[in-house]
Amino acid sequence: AIRNGGSSKVLYVSGMPGTGKTASVLKAVRQLEDKAKDTKDYASGSDCQFAFAHVNAMCLAGPAAVFSEIVRQLTAAGELEGTGRQCSKSVAPAKLTQLFERRGKSDRVIVLLVDEMDYLATRDQAVLYRMFNWLTLPNPRLVIAAISNTMDLPERLLPRVSSRFGLVRVSFQPYNKEQINEILSQRLSSHDASSSFDPLTLKLCGARVAAGSGDIRKALQLCKRALEVRMARTGQTTCVVDLEDLKVAEKELLHANPSVSAIHGLGGKAHLFLAALMLEMRKRTAEAVPEKKVFKRYGKLLETLAKVEGDSNPMELSGSGPEAANDEAAFLAKRLEAMSLIEVQHVREHE
């Protein structure tokens, strides 16, 4: 696609979490970048030069913020003129459309990788439509690759969106026990730590994770915890992890859920905050929601309780008004984040 000056087809990479989608795509991009630097590998070095932008939609303040982030990265790559300051959400889409309308044959191809693409799927799908519409321009010199955990996202797109592009699918299947064992062995070998795990223990770890989700990240976490258990038991930094250590780690990470125990020990207001968070997540059918929406919902739940309970309400605010509810919600959010029960993503929202 880079040699051809772009493609009207989108590379759609999907699969379960922890199956190596992002790592594989980024490695392929790094290999292309290395080859582009060594023009001897190509008949024409200029045909292989490209600018790369990688956006993780889950880390954005909102779907529309994707355009500002793309502008920022392309400005840093020298494809757009600018001072490096963040471009506003209202200006960024038009600026990018203008860029792709004016591309010439001598311009580098732009490779745009959008991770967690499903987070950009708003109700009207306007963000996806505008992005994919660039591919219909006469000569955008653009390649778009999308990564998502959702297998059927293309089928759920509106016709006006799906008509903008062709599709090339790559599906990642969960790792099997042999693959997990091979990856774990390679990781240990690369750190000269192959002797730290009993071979049978490593195989059992791969089999247990493969029987569940096949998520390689869980296998790595399990090995890490098993090593910590062994070191705590023996008091030595040089040791060999055995089946007993793995069983303890497995009980902690795979079978037991420490979050459930922690939630049971929370106070009433913390429970109410989590209820507000869950209500907003269900309303938006998303894994991340704006903080201000959760705070507002928390305040409404407090108001409802006050009306129902009256003078016997045990969750009365220390202050009055929406500011008091917001301050209390912010405190609870920090507390729950410190307990690793929720994750607060600190992003800048530019108007």
TrEMBL record:
Residue ranges annotated for the Cdc6/ORC1-like ATPase lid domain, each copy included: 175-229
Places the protein is found: Nucleus
GO CC annotations on file: nuclear origin of replication recognition complex
GO molecular function: ATP binding; DNA replication origin binding
PANTHER family membership: CELL DIVISION CONTROL PROTEIN 6-RELATED, ORIGIN RECOGNITION COMPLEX SUBUNIT 1
Subunit and partners: ORC is composed of six subunits.
Protein name from the UniProt record: Origin recognition complex subunit 1
Source organism: Polarella glacialis (Dinoflagellate)
Taxonomic placement: Eukaryota, Sar, Alveolata, Dinophyceae, Suessiales
